[in-house]
Amino acid sequence: MLVLVAPGQGAQTPGFLAPWLELPGVADRIGTWSEVVGLDLIAYGTTAGADEIRDTAVAQPLLVAAALASAEVLGAAPDVVAGHSVGEFAAAALAGVLTQEQALTLVRERAKAMAKAAAVTETGMTAVLGGAEDEVLAAIDKHGLTPANINGAGQIVAGGTLEQLAALKDDPPARARLIPLKVAGAFHTRHMASAVESLREAAATVVPADPGITLLSNSDGQAVSGGAEFVERLVKQISSPVRWDSCMQTMGALGATKMIELLPGGTLTGLARRGLSGVQTVALKTPDDLEAARELIK
Known about the structure:
four-stranded antiparallel sheet, alpha/beta
């Protein structure tokens, strides 16, 4: 059973798209999508610096476009699809809930709304690696933070104000390592509440289809059979925690044996290697990874 997954914000690195543009049709496709979102995705994916592509309004459309382009090049027929945070929009397109253009249009609105919400208060996110889960969650709650991403494999991401994150750093849970993330705000927390209605308004103009393959939701890890329900979950997801641990549990229960992470891959396959025993993984980082991915799906 093949699972195709799309990464979330923070996976992008300067120039990551450049080698993919040399493949037939990719530059034209990214150019067309640049017009859809009103951003020069080619420039952002090739010559832009780290600070430029860390901008939420840029990073999110860039990541979804990259995931969809790499999926087209790969040409796989997955049994299950899922995305982490903004990666859910790529997953929705792959499952047929949204067209590629609809997914990118909604992501652009989501990105702008979340960037606006992030500008209200100085917030951020910190990955907490290791430690006992109940102790980690207790420490996050103690300092008024939100467990914004419960990723499984011993990784929980806390989101909140910079002051709250500093307090967590000074009083960390036992046996845990803290890594501040290079993101523009506390995504999937109450600090993003103002962005929810903005995306809901944009989503109201879209008529989604029901998924053609198994599509997992970040909210609880379960498969969603209705397109309208999945889009509503995409809207609520902005200010709600990502339960990637539950997504991986469902993948295991469904009998997943193979996972390919779309461009820019690495994060989700890393979690799978620790949290999904026996599942073979390939992360698409450069076109050189396509051979291994195609071997995996034979």
